[in-house]
Amino acid sequence: MAESIDHGRFITLLAERFPIVAASIGDCFKGKIHLEVATLATATQASIDDQDKGTVQAHFEFIDEVLPEATPDLENAIYVSYLEKLWFEGRKAAPTRARDLLTPRLRQALADLEEYLDRLFAGSKHTIKEKSVRRLSSPPHGKRPKSPRRKR
Q: Is residue 144 part of a domain?
């Protein structure tokens, strides 16, 4: 039986494989598994947007190697703060065809996650990402922001 990969071991493996990504984890993020995994997701997304297929594939292979041995907290962070955070469609992301670069295990994990989210938000006419975008762009409590008055 292989040794499980916990939070500490994940950070060690990340630093060995992707030292620049590991070094980019902000001081406020250190020690918080979801934020550390999200830092890798941010790097992956930047590579998707830059159409750097080699780096995208390397990140996917790394996550694919970690996932089967991940402790429950790390596995949850991979689903929530890595897979759910990635955008596979859109003007910048579409040319990379990153979804096609997913390993079979990650493709299945993403399909399971999307199925779960679809069930969770069944009856909603908007996708998860559309809701997130709308929530981020809408003012709180439905109030319109005051427009600045122009000086004459």
A: no
Q: For the residues 132-143, what does the mean pLDDT come to?
A: 44
Is pLDDT of 47 > 70? yes
Counting the structural domains of the chain, the total is 1
Domain that holds residue 111: 7-137
150 occurs within a structural domain: no
At 73, the amino acid letter reads D
Q: Is residue 93 part of a domain?
A: yes
**Residue 76 located in a structural domain:** yes
